Backbone:
């Protein structure tokens, strides 16, 4: 396989977003359905897909970059010593070719050219309510078909599922898979981190100082909690087992982050008290 960066036409310093954008543009331009008169289109299309699969994975990209640096350093040492020859150049090129071929084989799991079309990577946006209701995510394929994807048990942001033989079609190759990455949509009340949920708990200054009982809204119903006295905005109440559902009945936790709030209108008595405390006067 050729250098994956060259295949996608990006620099080795390219970000993942730049790599993804380049892959999408090339995959669209080189798709065999748009190049039916070109007998090599499916091979170029597959090469682009395999290059993207390699570079989007942090571990495989790190190995590739390390091998590239080692090869560059070896060439620089040869040039500095003035001993570079046509034979050594051929060896270096052969070594680079072997490097990329080995990475190709490791990635594709085969010694020859791939017999399967590239996978199709798609995101599926879901809500916190969808997770509790065990709803199915809708994924739109490039051909207009809609897939209904069941949410796996214990789904969290970034979780992936593979749907066999629903990806790219390339003549002469097995159909690729669809790899769906679930993304939890922003929520007006909750913030998800793994199975845990975070929410703000507004408390007025009186109750923050004296403590109180109040209600915290959870996705599956309200919860009565106790706010300890002298609770500032740096305090968080942990409510065990009221976060997102996990596997085998497991639940994450709900964290209520206290936010001390002033009353809607200024209170002269409170202002006088604060002023006396600041100035050292006691009534």
Residues:
């Amino acid at each position: 396989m050729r250098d994956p960066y060259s295949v996608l036409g990006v620099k080795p310093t390219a970000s993942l977003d730049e790599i993804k954008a380049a892959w999408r543009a090339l995959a669209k331009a080189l798709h065999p359905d748009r190049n039916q008169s070109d007998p090599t289109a499916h091979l170029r299309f597959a090469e682009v897909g395999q290059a993207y699969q390699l570079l989007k994975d942090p571990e495989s990209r790190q190995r590739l970059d390390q091998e590239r640096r080692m090869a560059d350093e070896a060439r620089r040492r040869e040039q500095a010593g003035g001993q570079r020859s046509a034979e050594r150049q051929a060896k270096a090129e052969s070594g680079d070719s072997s490097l990329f071929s080995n990475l190709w084989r490791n990635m594709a799991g085969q010694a020859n050219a791939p017999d399967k079309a590239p996978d199709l990577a798609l995101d599926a946006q879901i809500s916190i309510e969808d997770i509790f209701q065990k709803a199915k995510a809708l994924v739109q394929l490039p051909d207009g078909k809609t897939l209904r994807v069941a949410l796996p048990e214990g789904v969290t942001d970034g979780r992936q599922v593979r749907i066999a033989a629903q990806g790219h079609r390339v003549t002469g190759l097995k159909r690729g898979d669809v790899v769906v990455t679930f993304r939890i949509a922003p929520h007006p009340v909750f913030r998800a981190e793994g199975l845990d949920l975070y929410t703000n708990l507004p408390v007025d200054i009186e109750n923050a100082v004296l403590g109180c009982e109040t209600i915290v809204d959870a996705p599956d119903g309200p919860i009565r909690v106790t706010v300890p006295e002298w609770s500032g905005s740096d305090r968080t109440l942990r409510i065990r087992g009221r976060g997102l559902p996990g596997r085998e009945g497991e639940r994450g936790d709900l964290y209520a982050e206290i936010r001390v709030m002033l009353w809607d209108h200024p209170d002269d008595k409170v202002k006088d008290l604060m002023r006396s405390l600041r100035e050292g006067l006691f009534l």
